[in-house]
Amino acid sequence: MAAIVSIVIAYLIGSLNMSIIIAKLLGKPDPRTVGSGNAGATNVLRTGSKQDAAWVLIGDIVKGVIAVVIARIFHVEGFLLGIVALAAIVGHVFPIYFKFKGGKGVATMMGVLIALNIWIGVISLAVWVIVALLIRYASLASLSAATAAVICSLIFGHFTYFVPLLIIAALIFWKHMGNIERLKAGTEGKIKF
After folding, report:
1. Most exposed among 28, 38, 77, 166, judged by the fewest C-beta atoms under 10 Å?
2. What pLDDT does residue 38 have?
3. Taking the chain, what is the end-to-end CA distance rounded to the nearest angstrom?
4. Residues 118 and 105 sit within 8 Å (Cβ to Cβ)
5. Which pTM was predicted?
6. For residue 77, is it left (φ>0), alpha (ψ between -120 and 50) or beta?
């Protein structure tokens, strides 16, 4: 029962999309209606300010951490904790509060990874930062980080997280299909720090 409650809570927390909430609080346009149309930190960075994007990024990471920490308080561990992590990301991607149209789940993924296993989280975040700084494609950095998380779960022996992290990576790849096509075509926009 604790696992089911934790999964529902994680989904509801994940559904709190920070880019939409912060835009409303600041009287700015809904990020789903400007730029790439994605409700995430990268689109806010491109269409708004660095400060707004930083708040979105921090908020989306923190909600991922909170979702997993709450489950741990209820003594949810192993595979089911991985499912809790997945639920938080599903909430971000398909938020109940915003007509199921959310972001791509990358920042929330970073939060759940940090809470699942600090090393998996830190390595995935480092992969994202390195790829983003060197190549300047947020999409490629995101795909690389999701892949790194799956590989790290095996390297560090967290086999119970493998399937949930694989599903998370697949969801993130699916949400980035348009970006992948633009990367292939050479039309993907680069990020500016």
Report:
1. 77
2. 86
3. 45
4. no
5. 0.93
6. beta
144-168 pLDDT tens trace: 999 999 999 999 999 999 999 999 9
* Residue 104 to residue 85: CA distance in whole angstroms: 14
**137-140: long-range contacts at Cβ-Cβ below 8 A with a sequence spacing of 24 or more?**
137/179, 137/183, 137/188, 137/190, 137/191, 138/42, 138/191, 139/176, 139/179, 139/180, 139/182, 139/183, 139/188, 140/183, 140/188
Distance CA 144, CA 36 (A): 20
User: Which sign does the torsion angle of CA 129, 44, 182, 107 carry?
Assistant: positive
Give the list of residues 6+ apart from residue 18 with CB closer than 8 angstroms, or none: 41, 55, 56, 59, 60, 63
Rounded Cα gap, residues 2 and 123, in angstroms: 30
The sign of the CA dihedral 138, 142, 143, 148 is positive
Domain positions in the chain: 2-185
Both tokens assigned to 12: 């509801």
